[in-house]
Write a structure and sequence with these properties.
Blueprint: H1 14-31, E1 36-38, E2 45-47, E3 51-54, E4 63-66, H2 71-99, H3 105-136, E5 143-145, H4 147-168, H5 173-177
Antiparallel strand pairs: 1-2, 1-5, 2-3, 3-4
């Protein structure tokens, strides 16, 4: 029976795949207009990482203002964006690292360290945004932080998980490279009574 866990050489592409998933969720968070939305009808408030939009109850057109006019808006966008760029670099490094036959485990651990930096930048951006938004932008009606903001947190959680695995992967170096011989356990018929 062959067991293919995380420490299996055939399954080495799981971690880069998870990083790719984190990148996709990060793109959705960066481009999505659902960081903050009205909780129920009438939908009069909507915000992204870049701008905040409001409209009157009977109005169909949104009136938007850029969050880049605020220092905290630039800080939230910059920290999340820097984290995202480093995440893309980590993805490229992971693909390169796992493509090489002789895997450099110190290199893999370095990717894990960079992923912790990514998580720190993204968490800073994801905390600055709601705290300062609710303090400085006048809100209309009942609002909630919505799906695009959730994708930002989901990307961060995946990055943190991958960071731990990248840092711990060198501990399983022999298993990953297939340097461990299988151990076979059997008992002879004479010894069977003693095993009970």
């Amino acid at each position: 029976m062959v067991v293919c866990g995380l420490a299996c050489w055939r399954c080495r592409w799981l971690l880069p795949l998870l990083l790719g998933l984190a990148i996709i969720m990060g793109i959705i968070a960066l481009a999505g207009r659902g960081w903050l939305e009205s909780e129920s009808e009438p939908y009069v408030q909507q915000a992204s990482l870049w701008e905040s939009c409001t409209r009157g109850e009977g109005d169909l057109n949104w009136s938007c203002e850029s969050l880049m006019d605020y220092g905290w808006g630039r800080a939230a966008a910059a920290t999340y964006l820097v984290g995202f760029v480093i995440l893309v670099i980590c993805f490229a490094l992971a693909v390169i690292a796992f493509s090489i036959e002789i895997l450099r485990f110190n290199f893999v651990r370095g990717i894990g360290g960079l992923l912790f930096v990514v998580a720190a930048f993204q968490i800073i951006g994801l905390v600055i945004y709601p705290v300062k938004f609710t303090e400085e932008i006048p809100l209309t009606g009942d609002n909630m932080f919505s799906w695009a903001y959730g994708f930002g947190w989901a990307s961060t959680v995946v990055v943190i998980g991958c960071a731990f695995f990248f840092c711990c992967l060198p501990n399983w170096e022999d298993e990953v490279l297939g340097n461990i011989k299988p151990t076979y356990y059997y008992s002879s018929p004479e010894r069977a009574p003693y095993l009970n």
